[in-house]
Amino acid sequence: MIQPFADVQLLLPELLLSIVAMVLLIxxxxxxxxxxxxxxxVAALSLLGAALLVRSPEEGFVIFGGAFATDEFARFGRIAxxxxxxxxxxxxxxxxxxxxxxxxxxxxxxxLSSIGxxxxxxxxxxxxxxxxxxxxxxxxxxxxxxxxxxxRSTEAGLKxxxxxxxxxxxxxxxxxLIYGFTGSTxxxxxxxxxxxxxxxxxLTFGLIFFVSALAFKVSAAPFHMWTPDVYEGSPTPxxxxxxxxxxxxxxxxxxxxxxxxxxxxxxxxxxxxxxxSAASMIVGALSALVQTNIKRLMAYSSIGHMxxxxxxxxxxxxxxxxxxxxxxxxxMLMTLGTFACILMMRRPxxxxxxxxxxxxxxxxxxxxxxxxxxxFISLAGIPPFIGFFAKFFVFTAAVDAGLIILAVVAVVTSxxxxxxxxxxxxxxxxxxxxxxxxxxxxxxxxxxxxGSAILVTLGTIFLVGPIAGAAxxxxxxxxxAVVGG
Length: 485
Known about the structure:
The protein has 485 residues and is mainly alpha-helical.
């Protein structure tokens, strides 16, 4: 039964962000002087407020006629997304001011994209999924082209838009096939239909098209083609944002869609996720070996990390979903910290993006060198840093689910990936120093870089337990529907 007042209450975070976005858009258009910096702080505070407003009833709740769920899984994802978006906003002020790209519309686009991602992780209906995905995607397409005077930025945005439109076509076609063969757009009804009847071929094709579209959104191989060029061409704060929040939202949507809509077809979708996961890890590890641009390196690193996160999804178990959620939260922390370090790679003539620009950083900027090294070691998954435990969780879930070969592929590609992470660290500590980076960075950038490095270092003691516990509670919310089915 639809309860409008209760429904509105449970989507209060997204409504708050919608109101703030519209107000900031009007204020930015009416006031002649540049107040974008102030608008950024207001938007960041509203994102923090939205994270604090996220709640879920004790037993979970399906709202707006079954379109959205407000269970612990959605709560976990929404809080992580809003906090990530807020941090990404704070990271962007100094960069956009120096590059003369500071515009009110960027702030509004981040808020609208966050609303779309909040809807993505809550959606339990194919139409709601499409609305959330497109709201998030359209905003990021525009953000990628903010530097209109840059050919790289324009090319990145155009490439992202064209390939994103193709993935949207896949998503819609897959959704139409699923609806055609099950008679419903809601996950619960789709699950009931797929369990009680033999799966028709058309339903399987619909599932594959839908999975392909979601794989594009998280830049998993072989749907990763856009990632390196878009990461390199977009303004660095935009790259930081798209490397963290949309990936987390896409992976959470991936998990809810497969577990809640197709629990009875796990034998059909598990091999597909297995292949995508293995391909992502292999492509990410091997392609990153030959990169000379730090942002392209991070792009291929991201592809590989999505492969590791998909291991938990391929397991198809509660432990697997829990490990995936833990992995994405830890990955978000490491990625934001790394891009904060990249934002500090600036010389008087502009941003430096080549890995060779880090040569001898330990002698010119030792604090930045230490932060870079800690974050890269954690991304490589070397103990005792928190990135090791992220991989340990998904590897354990794979072994428990009997995916031994996938676990072996993951271990081998982790060893290969360690080489390119350590090669960057070698450049930082043992190469001849290059001209020093400028030090006029925003406090938010310095604090994010140093804070992330500290959290990655101390996370073994203070963060691993709480993150794993929260992820386990979130994953548990998806599985009563399976048992009930």
